From TrEMBL:
The keyword Methyltransferase applies. This is Methyltransferase domain-containing protein. One of its GO terms (biological process) is methylation. GO terms for molecular function: S-adenosylmethionine-dependent methyltransferase activity. Pfam families: Methyltransf_11. Residues 58-154 form the Methyltransferase type domain. The lineage of its organism: Bacteria, Bacillati, Actinomycetota, Actinomycetes, Propionibacteriales. Keywords: Methyltransferase, Transferase. InterPro entries: Erg6_SMT_methyltransf (IPR050447), Methyltransf_11 (IPR013216), SAM-dependent_MTases_sf (IPR029063).
């Protein structure tokens, strides 16, 4: 099991030497966005979702809640995040309360398939499907909770070559829970689940640049509370991920799809 970190808010506050409510947004962006590209990746996803204050969005695999809060702040919409890891949902809820966004954003410990609501206006999922073996079933579960015409945005990691990335990785410590697909296989899984492709963009070069600049951004944020510091073996996992994208073993793609 990869996502085993507990007492996450306490760990954040110990690293930062202050209450999470005192952290600036750039400082939070360095810890609550558990994916390559950070807050900038979410900005790249937002236009394709066509959000406004009347929409309600589903965040599948919401983690620490950074993207959900960013989406709510940017568009004024309501966001429901679901995640299977209770400690992540607890931390996401605490961070959301500290940000004053509890009325707009809420988080649930559940599989998306078990949600009762089936009229979401949009959905997004960021760096989640790498842990999912049956990708068609995963995306069908998302489609089942969206109204016809709703948009799904994804920002995800794919296998590019025949080589294997070095372990550990952000989503897998020893590899048994990593299920990487090629870009074509991933699009096929999404399309077979009730979606039509709107766009599919290789963002690997941009992600390599983002990783190159990450250290300087974390230093400039001026806090010891960073995602690599928070995760078990975090620096090694991030370095291996960055190297695999830089070497062409992995790629990162951004996609937008419309529910049929």
């Amino acid at each position: 099991m990869t996502y085993t970190e507990t007492d996450l808010v306490a760990a954040m506050e110990q690293l930062a030497a202050e209450h999470v409510g005192a952290l600036s947004q750039p400082q939070l962006d360095g810890i609550d966005q558990f994916h390559a590209g950070g807050a900038e990746a979410v900005e790249r996803l937002l236009p394709s979702l066509r959000l406004d204050p009347t929409t309600t969005v589903l965040d599948v695999g919401s983690g620490l809640g950074g993207p959900a809060r960013q989406v709510a702040r940017s568009s004024g919409c309501a966001v429901v995040g679901v995640d299977l890891t209770a400690s992540y949902v607890d931390a996401a809820t605490t961070l959301t309360e500290a940000a004053g966004l509890s009325e707009a954003v809420r988080f649930l410990v559940t599989d998306v398939a078990d949600l009762q609501r089936r009229d979401f206006d949009a959905a997004f999922t960021i760096h989640v499907q790498m842990n999912v073996a049956d990708k068609a079933r995963f995306f069908a579960g998302i489609a089942d909770h969206l109204r016809p015409g709703a948009r799904l945005a994804i920002f995800d990691v794919c296998r590019t070559g025949t080589g294997e990335p070095n372990l550990p990785l952000p989503w897998s410590i020893e590899g048994t829970d990593s299920y990487l697909a090629t870009p074509d296989e991933l699009v096929a899984a999404v399309e077979s689940s009730g979606f039509e492709t709107v766009e599919w963009v290789d963002e690997s070069a941009w992600v390599v640049d983002w990783f190159t600049e990450l250290g300087a951004r974390l230093v400039a944020a001026g806090t010891g509370a960073t995602l690599p510091a928070l995760l078990d073996d975090g620096p090694t996992r991030m370095i291996n991920f960055a190297a695999a994208v830089s070497d062409g073993v992995l790629s990162v793609h951004r996609g937008a799809f419309e529910r049929r």
